[in-house]
Amino acid sequence: FPTRRSSDLSFINYPIVVFEELLDAQVNALLSLKDTLEAREFRKGSQRQKIRTKMVIALTNKSPEEVSQMGPYAEALMQRFRIELEHKWSSHTRSDYMELLHGRFKPSTDKEKKIINAMSGILETISKKKECICPRIAIAATKVALSAGSSNVEDILNNISFVHGLAGMEDTYETMRRD
Description:
Elements: E1 16-19, H1 27-39, E2 41-44, E3 47-50, E4 55-58, H2 64-69, H3 72-78, H4 94-105, H5 110-129, H6 135-148, H7 153-160, H8 170-178
Parallel strand pairs: 1-4
Antiparallel strand pairs: 2-3
Helix pairs in contact: 1-3, 4-5, 4-6, 5-6, 6-7
């Protein structure tokens, strides 16, 4: 078998590329990407390679306002994307989260069902009290809760407290403990 070079796996060799959470990358990586897209070639020193990419799709959870607060480099990069599509849930209720989590995890035991039920309530409470929890964060937190295995709400709250997007919820925890 011929060996594959790591450059063969680069995005520049694919006609359609999806960058998930693009704006979470470091500034120098974003600037390099912007340069590569504008030049339509990848440059490393004196080496140059044309990119085969025809379409780049960038995904982010950041609003246009958040992008503008990141500085001119992020705004300049995002201006390269001609179509902007925003997808939001219309509501963040317990039943919305329940539908998402049941579809994703397909709980088969009573314990899994209790954890998903508890998570749906927790996520709804956080969405009402602090800020809306997106499906990606809801799934990540539920994965943590399911792997920890406790259906006790206080245990779940402690287990998910480090999940990105949920940290700093101490005041919400207190509210939930009371509720």
